[in-house]
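User: I'll paste a sequence; please echo it back and then give the predicted structure.

Assistant: Echoing your sequence first, then the prediction.
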Amino acid sequence: LAYGTEENEPVNLVTGPGNIYVAAAKRHLQGVVAIDSEAGPTEIAIVADSTADPAFVASDLISQAEHDPMAAAVLITDSLELADAVDAELVRQVPLARHEERIRTALAGSQSATVLVRDTDQGVDVANAYAAEHLEIQTADASALADRIVNAGAVFVGSFTPVSLGDYAAGSNHVLPTAGCACHSSGLSVRAFVKNMHVVSYSEAALRDVGPKVVTLAEAEDLPSHGAAVTARLERGQ
């Protein structure tokens, strides 16, 4: 796609998710071809407090670990009791999964973890720093916390909003930035296929009005030829 083939011209933009090899190829070729963002392997982070249902939290971690052995599943909580209960649920639920081996590998990998925080405020800070592809908030004040999230591919608010809804039914895009790219990138949308172009047109009178200011700025930047291109036009009409 980036370089073209005998049958196809090179494209301008490559979009879409993939495994680590797809993500590596997109990163390697960025600049040769535009990319939407790095999308894969999948990630889920869950901010949860003591009010969360550990069975729900565990099932949601498993749901995304199912994607890929390198999928990241991260629990962020201020409750040691919840963390222990989620671990117990993982022990119970993982053996029941069809893709048990893949899930175990993902959950045991260094990309997955339980992060104990001082309180949910610190949990929000950790979530914004991590910038997960999928972020669930399962806390007593989930909506209020969601308003403070600035870095995530998609945010799933409340205990009855699993990521699976976004995958299949809710309407949020399934192609979302991973690997921290949610700090600067958004999920795939029609905007990814739209670019802007600036068009500038000045009359002679308009140039005479602003031209001296342009010359002054060009001199201040030690780029006198920039100013000279304006001065040549100003002097022509005198």
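The mean pLDDT is 94. The first strand starts at residue 13 and ends at 14.
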